[in-house]
Fold each of these.
Amino acid sequence: MSIINALSVSIATLVLLPALANAQADTRPEALAANFMVQFYDVPADSVSVTLTEQTARQAKAKAEVAGGHVCIMEMALAPEGVHAPFGWLVGSMQCDQ
């Protein structure tokens, strides 16, 4: 991942923190991926589809798509106990189409 992409993801994460704090208590990795897409692309939730491509008890990889063509692949890890993570998962990496 290039520095620009990493900075984009980091900035997007900072922008999304308030939205994540107010989220419902859905603790599936799909919910976190969908929420990122809704906030990142400013689209309604029903226009986002998420498919888990890999999942273990502590890790997940999802392909999230927005109607109209935006696609992101997210790698997530289960949040450790005591860490404030409204969805119960943390995004470790995110690659989106340009």
Amino acid sequence: MPGWPIVPVRHVPQPADAPAEQVTPALARLVGHGLRVDVRRDPAGATARGAPAAWRGIVHPTLARAGAAVAAWWGRDAFQAAAVHGPGGALALAGPSGAGKSTLAAAVALAGRTVVTDEVVVVEDGDVLAGAASLAVRADARALLPLPPGLRSAWDGRAALLPLGPAPPSVALRGWVHLAWGERTTVRPLGPGARTAALGAARLHGDARGDAAAFLRLATLPAWRLERPRTADGHAQATAALLELLG
């Protein structure tokens, strides 16, 4: 994107230790999937440590999370979410790790819709910026999706990479869908207080940015809580509900 810094990434092929993660105004240290990534703000650069087998997970999700720190440093809000594109703009699917963001985004992609980004949503002036070119579908979710054969594996075989079609460089964000597990499939609109609380829980590295006005503008967008059970029927019902929200 114009105006964004170029952050060179250097790979050190050695086992990664697992120190505590931290994000400060000058440094981000992120750990996961056998990798440790240290990102510097000035001069811009990143060092990724991990065995060669772990390198397949570097772009998604490890560097996506590093990109969230860089976004915060340069004045953009970042959230733990995926984003899918409908006729009226993008809906962000927010939730913690294990909430099923990538699985639902993959279902939307397989239904012929556009996935703008996965794992991290970066917002600039009300627009979602395009992110990952593939989705990592966990092994326990593969049975829920009609995945094509021959997909590359990631995370030591614990996920399959689903390539995504082209997406616009940016899409207007029109709402939030906060994902949760429940006993049955329900879609519930959120009121102002619940919208703000749910968005705050999804925000990444807010302390590194601190722009409350921009965050509150995003919290005024329509938002829903989508609950579903961890079953094939629950997944199918949640996919149908999400496609209806997309329009």
